[in-house]
Design brief:
The protein has 71 residues and is an all-beta fold. The protein is built from no helices and 3 strands. A 3-stranded antiparallel sheet has the order 1-2-3, with no helix packed on it. It is globular. The N and C termini lie far apart (56 Å).
Length: 71
């Protein structure tokens, strides 16, 4: 009897491994793992963490703050 595991993300990629892996990482609208990013120096929320599409070209418009933003 063989066993297989799925990541329930709609793709065949392996789950990320290592100390930075977070199983709560959301999917973008493309169905890919969203990238964790830092708001830049010109942002109203400089230094805040957010998720966005991980594609390098033709990104979808997925956006989600990682932590609650105050102010």
């Amino acid at each position: 009897m063989s066993s297989s595991s799925t990541n329930n993300r709609g793709d065949d990629r392996e789950k990320p491994q290592g100390p930075l892996y977070d199983p709560t990482t959301p999917n973008c609208h493309c169905g890919m793992w969203a990238d964790l990013r830092i708001a830049g120096p010109n942002s109203k929320h400089k230094g805040s963490l957010y998720y966005s599409c991980s594609k390098t070209q033709e990104r979808c418009k997925y956006f989600k703050w990682c932590l609650p933003i105050s102010g």
